[in-house]
Design brief:
The complex is a heterotrimer. Chain A is mainly α. Chain A contains five helices and no strands. A two-stranded antiparallel sheet of chain B has the order 1-2. In chain B, about 65% of the residues are buried. Classes of the chains: A mainly alpha, B mainly alpha, C alpha/beta.
């Protein structure tokens, strides 16, 4: 998309953010609590206005560089995987979910051939990493990690 | 000074020495892990010091503190994620250097700079405590407020041609920091989802805003890592790099001053000092455009001042019990557990412990530097890790690091959500650093503003309270100057761009 | 291939052991103690001291790990405990009175004093009125006179909103018929700093912290029913003619959220008071200047009830609609 269009989308986004927070302001504003956020929103509004004005007067030009196609699918897969991972931590347990995440995500997204040998090495790496974390956090630092049904 | 030297001998006892060594190694490691900040590292270790005697325990905490602050540079340089909030400015030039194959040099610079800053910070503790402690006390709500405003205007210098977006990000960061219970009145604000009830802590924000976009970038670039072992260690680079420090003496000196002053100011710590010094080094440089593309001086600026804050933060801590940085606050707990109360007693009745501790801090700087330099030689191994593996590991580390802060899964969810939003923002060319700075400074600014207002209303009136007084005026002037410089820089860059476009249009 | 199988076996064995462990008596794994304030503060380090011997068999047999959840004077942590905290008995909560009660009366958080089952009390830290060393107000009488002459202009701080220090301030205002301006600070140490650098005119703060800092400030009076052994020369407000009782005394101790298993509650009630009286704990509390006052669960429940009654009366004007 053209650079100028992108900039206007940004401005729309900025306004959207301000509006979003504005509608979250408590109704009966305790003098203290909404003063500061209010000031911030006011500043943000001002900045958005300045941006709109500068964009009108000096619209951004396209850089003319050829853009590589963006690997949307791959990025979405990773995002989805992280969401599932985070959701799985408490029920399944941190170490197990980390293990599964590491292995599954890297295998799913890799662009090099998925030979059995490569997969086994990857599994070994995953185990090794998780064991390292276990030693560091649970044994050494004694931090309470979500245990879940297994580990 | 004398007392410190006299007590250096104590460091040679087996326990103390071991702890110094382990603390330095462990500290660098903690600082390097994205997710574990110096504050958390010290907090996690305080319980272990129960079982040690006071001196040994303190030396451990102190060496971990200083090494963690330095260690953050490792991930900042190598994988573009600050391992410690103090290293945010380091990645601005550190990572570009690493990508160019100069990672080893960047780390050398970072650690030598940290050594210089750290030593100066501790020297300030040893030699200048009385005047600096008095100075620390003079920072009341209005002064703190202007310091945080100054911190935000520094963003103008960081945004590199995107001034408006940078400022917007900074202010948004401050707005985001209001989510949760309001600090003074305890009212819930902006809690549009349950997970937000405990607010947005600094470490989850830091990790989310830097690590997640980086992870998604790595995911997008998986296919780009074609050559194996692209990065090789270089021989004979150390001394030439060190010699360059002579060129950078101005940045070093100012970095120490900035670091020491910010270190003493209660509440603000390494995070802010690194950024402020980076910004001013750039302003004072003859070639500001090189900053952000791999200019070594940027790394020097950041690392010298963030380590100088360590020694300085101890000054108000040891004399008045007022911590100069969030990590020093945790150290306070460590002191109190051993029955060591800040104040003249520390230097009188407990002089042995205190001076050995200070001597330990001084020596720790050298250990930290040595270990760091050793590591730097092999840092290429990390650069060679396939993007794929790096991406998955960082996600896991980010999750566990965030969780450890408040033992709260909500933080992890917030971290990721923030990260996703920042990724979109980065695609729209919004820089991350200002947002993080906003999140860090927001609470300080809001509290000091409200508190100052309450006091002022009983006394001289709000306007007069905030706009009179030496320190107030100093920071107001600095803020205005910083903003003006940023605007000017933006304007001249804009002019140049216009001229270049006109020239190319004419030539076409 | 063999390595992978070996790893799998190890993991399986480990998880079986974990599941088997769940059948052991309480406690079979470390217990978290939620501290509602920042690390390094008075509540935090006292909690650490009193929890140190927990690992010994005669006490809990498992270590107690401190988890800090600071924010909003304690509300963040206590809200979390009631809404999301585990009820499996592995989440102990450290309470602060009067903060918990005052906050539940004035604000509308998810908890009240009845949401918690007291286990044992470890400390009682009365509030003291402090002024900077160089202050012209040398005693309570002068303080009150000055305040009467300048209503609303005297700034007095404390470690937060509706914490013990704030309650003491409200009581002083009521007892002496004066109007002060209370400035909530982020914590005890911040409050001190503001007092000795003269940013505020006076403060209420913890006795424990104040008596260690007499070089920088003067302690004018103590808000309790009798004088304290650490400060034998400091009069109580009652002696000076102002009716201020011990509603503002900062009690700290362990409690559980209601709904926790009876096995956990019984064990904790039995073991905690003994642990608080452990000689090592007593020694360290004394060294750090923290007043120790051990009460068992019955005494603590009585304290909860009496403080609640007093505070409801005192704060009824301030209840938010």
């Amino acid at each position: 998309m053209k650079a100028a269009t992108k900039e206007w989308l940004c401005i729309a986004g900025m306004l959207g953010i301000i509006a979003f927070f504005y509608f979250q302001l408590p109704d009966e504003a305790e003098a203290g609590s909404s003063l500061f956020p209010g000031m911030m929103m006011f500043l943000m509004l001002g900045l958005t206005a300045v941006k709109a004005v500068t964009e009108l007067r000096f619209p951004k030009r396209d850089s003319g560089k050829a853009k590589e196609p963006f690997p949307l699918v791959r990025v979405l897969v990773v995002v989805l995987a992280v969401i599932l991972y985070i959701a799985a931590i408490e029920p399944v347990g941190f170490y197990l979910s980390s293990l599964l995440f590491f292995f599954l995500v890297t295998v799913a997204v890799q662009t090099t051939p998925r030979t059995p040998r490569a997969l086994v090495t990857r599994a070994g790496l995953a185990f090794g990493f998780v064991i390292f974390l276990y030693i560091l956090f649970t044994l050494l630092l004694q931090v309470q990690i979500p245990k879940g049904i297994l580990i | 000074m004398l007392e410190t030297l006299q007590h250096m001998g104590n460091l040679l006892s087996l326990g103390n020495f071991l702890v110094l060594l382990l603390g330095s190694v462990g500290g660098i490691f903690f600082g390097a892990m994205p997710g574990l900040s110096p504050t958390m590292a010290v907090a996690l270790l305080v319980p272990f010091t129960f079982y040690m005697d006071a001196t040994t325990g303190l030396i451990l905490l102190g060496s971990v503190y200083t090494s963690a602050v330095a260690g953050g540079a490792i991930t900042a340089v190598l994988i573009n994620i600050p391992g410690a909030p103090a290293s945010i400015a380091t990645l601005l030039d550190g990572h570009p250097m690493a990508k160019k194959g100069e990672g080893q040099q960047a780390l050398y610079i970072a650690f030598v700079g940290s050594l210089i800053g750290g030593v100066c910070g501790v020297l300030a503790l040893i030699l200048l405590t009385p005047p600096l402690a008095a100075f620390a006390l003079s920072f009341g709500p209005s002064e703190l407020f202007w310091v945080s405003v100054f911190g935000i205007t520094v963003i103008a210098g960081l945004s590199d041609g995107r001034l408006i977006k940078g400022l917007f990000g900074g202010v948004l960061g401050m707005l985001i920091s209001c989510i949760g219970y309001s600090p003074m009145l305890g009212e819930p604000r902006f809690v549009f989802h349950d997970t937000l009830i405990s607010g947005i802590a600094m470490v989850p924000a830091l990790i989310g805003l830097f690590a997640i976009p980086q992870v998604l970038d790595l995911a997008a670039e998986v296919h780009l890592q074609v050559t194996k072992n692209k990065y090789m260690p270089k021989k004979g680079v150390f001394w030439p790099t060190v010699r360059k420090f002579r060129e950078w003496w101005k940045t070093v000196v100012i970095g120490n001053i900035v670091g020491i002053i910010i270190g003493i100011i209660p509440g603000a710590g390494g995070q802010v000092a690194g950024l402020i010094n980076y910004d001013q080094a750039r302003k004072m440089s003859k070639h500001p455009e090189t900053f952000g593309t791999g200019e070594p001086e940027g790394v020097v600026a950041s690392e010298v001042s963030n380590n100088a804050t360590v020694g300085a933060a101890l000054i108000p801590l040891l004399t008045l019990g007022v911590p100069g940085s969030p990590t020093a606050a945790v150290l306070l707990g460590g002191l109190l557990i051993h029955g060591l109360f800040p104040g003249p007693e520390l230097f009188g009745k407990h002089a042995d412990i205190t001076y050995t501790f200070i001597a330990g801090m001084l020596v720790a700087q050298f250990f930290m530097c040595g270990i760091g330099l050793l590591f730097a030689r092999y840092s290429h191994a990390i650069m060679n890790i396939p993007n794929l593996i790096m991406m998955a590991s960082v996600v896991i580390l980010a999750v566990i690091g965030t969780y450890c802060v408040q033992n709260n899964m909500d933080d992890v969810i917030v971290m990721f959500a923030l990260g996703l939003l920042m990724y979109l923002g980065a695609k729209a060319e919004f820089p991350s650093a200002p947002v993080v700075l906003g999140v860090i400074l927001g609470p300080i600014a809001e509290e000091s503003f409200l508190r100052g207002k309450m006091i002022a209303e009983t006394d001289v009136g709000v306007f007069s309270y905030f706009f009179t007084g030496g320190i107030n005026l100093l920071f107001i002037a600095l803020s205005v100057g910083s903003l003006a410089w940023g605007l000017y820089g933006e304007h001249s860059r804009h002019r140049k761009r216009q001229n270049a476009q006109a020239a190319s249009a004419a030539a076409a | 291939m063999k390595k992978a199988i070996l790893f799998c076996l190890v993991l399986l064995l480990g998880s079986v052991a974990g599941v088997a462990g769940a059948a052991d008596p309480y406690p079979s794994s470390p217990i978290s103690l939620i501290v509602a304030y920042t690390p390094g503060g008075a509540t935090d380090f006292q909690a650490r001291i009193v929890s140190m011997p927990a690992g010994e068999e005669r006490y809990f047999g498992q270590p107690i790990v401190i988890v800090n959840k600071p924010g909003a004077g304690g509300m963040t942590a206590w809200n979390w405990c009631v809404e999301k905290g585990g009820k499996d008995g592995y989440t102990l909560v450290s309470y602060n009175m009067p903060h918990l009660i005052a906050q539940s009366i004035v604000s509308k958080p998810s908890f009240t004093a009845d949401s918690f089952i007291p286990v044992a009390n470890w400390g009682a830290d009365p509030a003291v009125l402090i002024v900077p060393k160089k202050s012209p107000l040398k005693n309570v009488k002068e303080f009150v006179e000055y305040a009467k002459a300048n209503p609303g202009k005297v700034t007095i701080n404390g470690a937060g909103l509706y914490v013990g220090h704030h309650i003491a301030t409200l009581q002083l205002e009521k007892a002496a018929g004066i109007k002060l301006t209370y400035i909530p600070e982020k914590g005890g140490t911040d409050a001190f700093q503001a007092v000795y650098s003269n940013k505020v005119m006076a403060g209420f703060n913890n006795l424990a912290d104040a008596f260690r800092n007499t070089d920088n400030l003067n302690i004018l009076a103590i808000a309790d029913t009798k004088r304290h052994e650490f400060l034998p020369d400091v009069p109580t407000f009652q002696e000076l003619g102002y009716d201020i009782d011990d509603a503002s005394v900062n009690y700290r101790g362990y409690c559980f959220v209601k709904g926790v298993s009876q096995e956990a509650v019984d064990k904790a009630i039995k073991v905690a008071p003994a642990m608080f009286n452990d000689p090592m704990v007593v020694k360290k509390m004394k060294e750090s200047g923290s007043p120790l006052k051990v009460m068992n669960n019955v005494e603590t429940q009585k304290m909860f009830n009496s403080q609640k009654a007093k505070l409801e009366v005192l704060l009824k004007d301030l209840v938010k609609k």
